[in-house]
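**Entry details**
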Amino acid sequence: MNMSTPQHTTAAHNLSNFIEEQIVACTNQPTRTAKAKQFLDEQFPLTKGSHADVCSYVVYYTHLLAFMKDGTQCGLQNPCQFVALSGHKESPTSLVFKHNDTHVEICFDRNGLIGANDQAHIDDIQVTLPIKNLPTPFKQWVSMLHTQSQPTKGNCKLFTAKDGSDYRINQS
């Protein structure tokens, strides 16, 4: 039984179209990164400022803090959108946000191809999207920054929820 609502289905379709038209179509890496951070601003807005101005992200207890290049900090307008992380709270290797049924993972790597040149060391931003034309609700992770991305291995990704418990994102 499919429990998805028309609103969630429309939102996933709009998100898929946005990614295909606005980000994947960009051939130049700085433009792709700028548009991906614009996507974060639209879907997961900060209380002030832009994800483009963030130098680092830190998890303080169960809250996400974004530190700006001018020294100020802020959180998400909707703190419930931050759901999980990988790595340590002081220096996460990834952060996971959720909007409706869509998960977004921000991956950090200061030595990565993209992360080495990004002030927040964001090396990738991945989004779960439904795989089209399948009768079952399978999802795939799509990279917004890498054009040569590999499919996720296994049936799920495992993170630490902000309360410390396991947080699994299944592909089906």
User: Anything to note?
Assistant: Confidence is low (pLDDT under 50) at residues 1-5. The first strand starts at residue 54 and ends at 60. Residues 8 and 100 are 7 Å apart (CA to CA).
